Amino acid sequence: MARRILVTGATGTVGGAVMRALAADAAGGMELFGAARSDRSADALRAGGFSPVAFDYDRPKTMRPALEGVDAVFLATGYTVDMLVHSKRLLDAAKAEGVRHIVHLGALAADDTPYAHFAWHQMIERTTEAMGFSWTHLRPNFFIDTVWAGLRHRPDRLTHFVGDRTVSWIASDDMAAVAAAALRDPAGHAGKTYPLAVEAMSFGELATLLSEVTGRAVEYRPRPAVDLLPILLKQGMEPTYATSLAEGVAATEAGDMPLSDAVFDTVEKVTGRKPVTWRDYATARLAELG
Ligand SMILES: NC(=O)c1ccc[n+]([C@@H]2O[C@H](COP(=O)([O-])OP(=O)(O)OC[C@H]3O[C@@H](n4cnc5c(N)ncnc54)[C@H](OP(=O)(O)O)[C@@H]3O)[C@@H](O)[C@H]2O)c1
Fold it and tell me: How far is CA 119 from CA 89, 106, 273, in A?
């Protein structure tokens, strides 16, 4: 019987990359479904050649039908404190439907981190374990894709709030490759916590690299971390999560975030190939900057 996999956040940055990474397998021996909470999301998945299934974290009744017959789930939540209740609802529904393996998209931090959204991700990890699932925990650091998306709007300028601190980076395709390996072969990756960050670089160094790769001047404009919260709130981010994010960034700016510049060989070890660096990523997407 074909294995069935559900990817949540399938229209998002990482879940979308997981769908692409697993698409080849879907041709044989695997049924792959992307969670869609609206017609728009379902249409976007279909346009990418994927099969959507109705699934809304805010409508718990949608969850069990989406999880029926599913063996393994990619659990991704959004930038809101609702990540807690969303994850709990998914885990309860998955348990009821007999799902065996959970691959959770968390965030890189020390195990005793005091910063809220990192701690919440770790509580979701502990809950997943306590509920008796087989599990693989992904802990990525700064997403290359998120900063690149900002650069597409403003190709001559990087703005961030961590000052000159060195931070470590990972691209969605590498997160997805590791996630896909765990979803394809749960037994081979059960009980593993995978830190995901492949190179370390400050924003100033990144601006220099991007200037070189793009052939045009890219300037880094650091802003104090205290400026971040009002900006996030103005952008409409849910306030509890925004406060946590701003605190984490302020801690990084202050040099009080262990592992914020740590790099790991997880991608090579799990996938057997070299990871995507900032230089690779920007070079492959130069045309997107117009
Ligand atoms: N950015 C970073 O540097 C960074 C670093 C470390 C960890 N992380 C973690 O990465 C995660 C976010 O991943 P991402 O950037 O891939 O997210 P994203 O691009 O914002 O995508 C969010 C996904 O969740 C879906 N979604 C939102 N609300 C939903 C609901 N009520 N029901 C069902 N689906 C819903 C969205 O669907 P629609 O298309 O319908 O909106 C979308 O597919 C967070 O947990 C964050 O802590 C981020």
Answer: 18, 10, 31
